[in-house]
Design a protein that fits this description.
There is one protein chain. 59% of the residues lie in helices and 4% in strands. With 245 residues, it is mainly α. The strands form 2 sheets. It has a two-stranded antiparallel ribbon. Strands 3-4 form a two-stranded antiparallel ribbon. Strand 3 and strand 4 form a beta hairpin. Helix 8 runs antiparallel to helix 9 (154-164). The chain is globular, with a radius of gyration of 25 Å. 17% of the residues are buried.
Length: 245
Protein backbone atom coordinates (compact mmCIF):
# COMPACT_ATOMS: atom_id res chain seq x y z
CA UNK A 1 0.00 0.00 0.00
CA UNK A 2 1.00 3.64 -0.42
CA UNK A 3 1.22 5.87 2.61
CA UNK A 4 2.77 9.10 3.79
CA UNK A 5 5.61 8.31 6.11
CA UNK A 6 9.32 8.76 6.32
CA UNK A 7 9.62 7.58 2.77
CA UNK A 8 7.13 10.21 1.54
CA UNK A 9 4.02 9.88 -0.60
CA UNK A 10 4.20 7.28 -3.32
CA UNK A 11 6.93 5.02 -1.85
CA UNK A 12 6.25 1.35 -2.43
CA UNK A 13 7.65 -1.81 -0.89
CA UNK A 14 7.44 -5.37 -2.12
CA UNK A 15 5.09 -7.62 -0.18
CA UNK A 16 6.04 -11.16 0.76
CA UNK A 17 3.99 -14.06 -0.49
CA UNK A 18 3.49 -17.27 1.47
CA UNK A 19 6.54 -18.74 -0.21
CA UNK A 20 8.68 -15.76 0.79
CA UNK A 21 8.99 -14.46 -2.75
CA UNK A 22 8.81 -10.66 -3.13
CA UNK A 23 5.91 -9.33 -5.23
CA UNK A 24 6.06 -5.74 -6.45
CA UNK A 25 2.94 -3.71 -5.70
CA UNK A 26 1.12 -1.92 -8.53
CA UNK A 27 2.31 1.54 -9.54
CA UNK A 28 0.56 4.67 -8.35
CA UNK A 29 -0.94 5.08 -11.82
CA UNK A 30 -2.30 1.52 -11.86
CA UNK A 31 -3.80 1.93 -8.40
CA UNK A 32 -5.28 5.30 -9.42
CA UNK A 33 -6.80 3.84 -12.61
CA UNK A 34 -8.28 0.96 -10.64
CA UNK A 35 -10.02 3.41 -8.29
CA UNK A 36 -11.31 5.43 -11.25
CA UNK A 37 -12.61 2.22 -12.80
CA UNK A 38 -14.63 1.54 -9.65
CA UNK A 39 -16.51 4.85 -10.05
CA UNK A 40 -19.87 4.47 -11.71
CA UNK A 41 -21.43 7.60 -13.23
CA UNK A 42 -25.08 7.19 -14.26
CA UNK A 43 -25.59 7.33 -18.03
CA UNK A 44 -28.35 9.92 -17.54
CA UNK A 45 -25.89 12.25 -15.82
CA UNK A 46 -23.37 11.78 -18.63
CA UNK A 47 -26.04 12.50 -21.22
CA UNK A 48 -27.03 15.73 -19.46
CA UNK A 49 -23.38 16.80 -19.35
CA UNK A 50 -22.99 16.21 -23.09
CA UNK A 51 -26.27 17.99 -23.92
CA UNK A 52 -25.28 20.96 -21.78
CA UNK A 53 -22.02 21.25 -23.70
CA UNK A 54 -23.71 21.05 -27.11
CA UNK A 55 -26.29 23.71 -26.23
CA UNK A 56 -23.85 26.09 -24.52
CA UNK A 57 -21.39 25.93 -27.43
CA UNK A 58 -24.18 26.24 -30.00
CA UNK A 59 -23.92 22.86 -31.77
CA UNK A 60 -27.57 22.67 -32.77
CA UNK A 61 -27.41 19.80 -35.28
CA UNK A 62 -25.43 17.61 -32.90
CA UNK A 63 -27.83 18.47 -30.05
CA UNK A 64 -30.83 17.48 -32.17
CA UNK A 65 -29.24 14.14 -33.12
CA UNK A 66 -28.15 13.47 -29.55
CA UNK A 67 -31.63 14.31 -28.26
CA UNK A 68 -33.12 11.73 -30.61
CA UNK A 69 -30.51 9.01 -30.16
CA UNK A 70 -30.08 9.31 -26.38
CA UNK A 71 -33.73 10.00 -25.65
CA UNK A 72 -32.87 13.06 -23.58
CA UNK A 73 -34.69 16.37 -23.59
CA UNK A 74 -32.67 19.44 -24.53
CA UNK A 75 -34.60 21.43 -21.96
CA UNK A 76 -35.20 24.32 -24.34
CA UNK A 77 -36.22 25.16 -27.89
CA UNK A 78 -33.14 24.38 -29.96
CA UNK A 79 -34.30 26.90 -32.54
CA UNK A 80 -33.20 29.57 -30.09
CA UNK A 81 -29.58 28.61 -30.85
CA UNK A 82 -29.80 29.86 -34.43
CA UNK A 83 -28.77 33.46 -33.68
CA UNK A 84 -25.69 32.43 -31.73
CA UNK A 85 -24.78 29.90 -34.40
CA UNK A 86 -25.03 32.50 -37.18
CA UNK A 87 -22.85 34.92 -35.23
CA UNK A 88 -20.26 32.24 -34.46
CA UNK A 89 -20.17 31.07 -38.08
CA UNK A 90 -19.69 34.65 -39.29
CA UNK A 91 -16.68 35.15 -37.03
CA UNK A 92 -15.13 31.82 -37.95
CA UNK A 93 -15.54 32.76 -41.62
CA UNK A 94 -13.79 36.10 -41.03
CA UNK A 95 -16.97 38.14 -41.60
CA UNK A 96 -16.61 40.27 -38.50
CA UNK A 97 -18.71 43.26 -39.53
CA UNK A 98 -21.54 40.88 -40.36
CA UNK A 99 -21.23 39.36 -36.89
CA UNK A 100 -21.25 42.82 -35.26
CA UNK A 101 -24.40 43.72 -37.20
CA UNK A 102 -26.12 40.51 -36.05
CA UNK A 103 -25.16 41.18 -32.43
CA UNK A 104 -26.51 44.73 -32.61
CA UNK A 105 -29.81 43.42 -33.96
CA UNK A 106 -30.06 40.76 -31.27
CA UNK A 107 -28.76 42.77 -28.27
CA UNK A 108 -28.39 46.47 -29.20
CA UNK A 109 -26.72 47.45 -25.92
CA UNK A 110 -24.31 44.53 -25.60
CA UNK A 111 -21.28 45.97 -27.38
CA UNK A 112 -21.94 49.48 -26.05
CA UNK A 113 -21.75 48.10 -22.53
CA UNK A 114 -18.72 45.89 -23.17
CA UNK A 115 -16.20 48.05 -24.97
CA UNK A 116 -13.38 45.55 -24.51
CA UNK A 117 -15.40 42.90 -26.32
CA UNK A 118 -16.10 45.40 -29.09
CA UNK A 119 -12.35 46.05 -29.34
CA UNK A 120 -11.67 42.33 -29.80
CA UNK A 121 -14.20 42.19 -32.62
CA UNK A 122 -12.73 45.30 -34.28
CA UNK A 123 -9.23 43.92 -33.81
CA UNK A 124 -10.31 40.71 -35.53
CA UNK A 125 -11.73 42.73 -38.43
CA UNK A 126 -8.38 44.50 -38.71
CA UNK A 127 -6.65 41.11 -38.77
CA UNK A 128 -8.93 39.97 -41.58
CA UNK A 129 -8.07 43.08 -43.62
CA UNK A 130 -4.37 42.36 -43.14
CA UNK A 131 -4.91 38.72 -44.05
CA UNK A 132 -6.49 39.88 -47.32
CA UNK A 133 -3.55 42.28 -47.84
CA UNK A 134 -5.82 45.33 -47.86
CA UNK A 135 -3.09 47.48 -46.36
CA UNK A 136 -4.51 50.97 -46.91
CA UNK A 137 -7.96 49.90 -45.75
CA UNK A 138 -6.43 48.27 -42.66
CA UNK A 139 -4.50 51.43 -41.72
CA UNK A 140 -7.56 53.60 -42.23
CA UNK A 141 -9.73 51.28 -40.14
CA UNK A 142 -7.17 51.24 -37.33
CA UNK A 143 -6.96 55.04 -37.35
CA UNK A 144 -10.73 55.56 -37.35
CA UNK A 145 -11.84 52.85 -34.94
CA UNK A 146 -8.93 51.71 -32.76
CA UNK A 147 -6.31 54.43 -32.35
CA UNK A 148 -8.29 56.40 -29.76
CA UNK A 149 -8.99 53.26 -27.74
CA UNK A 150 -5.27 52.54 -27.69
CA UNK A 151 -4.52 55.94 -26.21
CA UNK A 152 -7.01 55.29 -23.40
CA UNK A 153 -5.99 51.75 -22.47
CA UNK A 154 -2.44 50.36 -22.39
CA UNK A 155 -3.68 46.79 -22.80
CA UNK A 156 -5.60 47.74 -25.93
CA UNK A 157 -2.54 49.61 -27.22
CA UNK A 158 -0.36 46.56 -26.77
CA UNK A 159 -2.81 44.36 -28.66
CA UNK A 160 -3.16 46.98 -31.39
CA UNK A 161 0.62 47.21 -31.78
CA UNK A 162 0.88 43.42 -32.09
CA UNK A 163 -1.77 43.44 -34.79
CA UNK A 164 -0.26 46.30 -36.80
CA UNK A 165 3.16 44.61 -36.57
CA UNK A 166 1.81 42.04 -39.03
CA UNK A 167 2.09 44.75 -41.69
CA UNK A 168 5.86 44.90 -41.25
CA UNK A 169 6.37 41.42 -42.71
CA UNK A 170 6.11 40.34 -46.33
CA UNK A 171 4.76 37.03 -45.04
CA UNK A 172 2.70 37.78 -41.89
CA UNK A 173 2.13 34.06 -41.36
CA UNK A 174 5.83 33.62 -40.51
CA UNK A 175 6.15 36.60 -38.15
CA UNK A 176 6.31 36.40 -34.31
CA UNK A 177 2.65 37.43 -34.09
CA UNK A 178 1.33 34.84 -36.54
CA UNK A 179 -0.90 33.43 -33.80
CA UNK A 180 -3.28 36.30 -34.58
CA UNK A 181 -3.86 34.81 -38.02
CA UNK A 182 -4.57 31.30 -36.76
CA UNK A 183 -8.13 29.89 -36.82
CA UNK A 184 -7.80 29.49 -33.05
CA UNK A 185 -7.80 33.28 -32.67
CA UNK A 186 -11.12 33.55 -34.49
CA UNK A 187 -12.45 30.80 -32.22
CA UNK A 188 -11.26 32.66 -29.14
CA UNK A 189 -13.13 35.81 -30.20
CA UNK A 190 -16.23 33.76 -31.04
CA UNK A 191 -16.15 32.09 -27.62
CA UNK A 192 -15.90 35.43 -25.80
CA UNK A 193 -18.83 36.80 -27.75
CA UNK A 194 -20.86 33.62 -27.21
CA UNK A 195 -20.33 33.91 -23.46
CA UNK A 196 -21.40 37.57 -23.51
CA UNK A 197 -24.59 36.72 -25.41
CA UNK A 198 -25.42 33.92 -22.97
CA UNK A 199 -24.99 36.37 -20.10
CA UNK A 200 -27.23 38.91 -21.83
CA UNK A 201 -29.86 36.20 -22.24
CA UNK A 202 -29.63 35.37 -18.53
CA UNK A 203 -28.39 31.84 -19.12
CA UNK A 204 -27.54 29.74 -16.07
CA UNK A 205 -23.89 29.78 -17.07
CA UNK A 206 -21.74 31.26 -19.80
CA UNK A 207 -19.60 28.11 -19.85
CA UNK A 208 -20.53 24.48 -20.28
CA UNK A 209 -20.34 22.28 -17.19
CA UNK A 210 -17.75 20.17 -19.01
CA UNK A 211 -15.50 23.21 -19.55
CA UNK A 212 -15.88 24.20 -15.89
CA UNK A 213 -14.95 20.65 -14.82
CA UNK A 214 -11.80 20.71 -16.95
CA UNK A 215 -10.79 24.07 -15.50
CA UNK A 216 -11.27 22.65 -12.00
CA UNK A 217 -9.07 19.69 -12.95
CA UNK A 218 -6.33 22.02 -14.21
CA UNK A 219 -6.58 24.11 -11.04
CA UNK A 220 -6.37 21.01 -8.81
CA UNK A 221 -3.33 19.67 -10.66
CA UNK A 222 -1.65 23.07 -10.45
CA UNK A 223 -2.23 23.20 -6.69
CA UNK A 224 -0.82 19.68 -6.25
CA UNK A 225 2.20 20.60 -8.36
CA UNK A 226 2.85 23.68 -6.18
CA UNK A 227 2.81 21.45 -3.09
CA UNK A 228 5.08 18.94 -4.85
CA UNK A 229 2.62 16.11 -4.33
CA UNK A 230 3.28 13.04 -6.46
CA UNK A 231 0.13 11.92 -8.26
CA UNK A 232 -0.87 10.53 -11.67
CA UNK A 233 -1.00 13.58 -13.94
CA UNK A 234 -3.57 13.86 -16.74
CA UNK A 235 -2.50 15.39 -20.04
CA UNK A 236 -5.64 17.08 -21.38
CA UNK A 237 -4.26 17.21 -24.92
CA UNK A 238 -4.15 13.41 -25.11
CA UNK A 239 -6.39 12.30 -22.25
CA UNK A 240 -3.61 10.06 -20.98
CA UNK A 241 -2.72 9.62 -17.31
CA UNK A 242 0.99 9.58 -16.62
CA UNK A 243 3.04 8.12 -13.80
CA UNK A 244 4.19 10.63 -11.19
CA UNK A 245 7.64 12.07 -11.83
Amino acid sequence: MYSIGEGGLGSSHPTMSAGGVGREEPSIREEWMQKIGDIRMPRAAMNKLVMNYLITEGFKDAAERFQEEAGISAGQDLGMLDNRINIRDSIQAGKIEEAISLVNQLHPQLLDNDRYLLFHLQQQHLIELIREQKIEEALQYAAEHLAERGEEDSTVLQELERTLALLAFDDPASCPFADLLAPAHRQQVASKLNAAILMAEHADSTQSKLAVSLKMLLWAQDELDKKRVRYPHMQLSTGQIEEPK
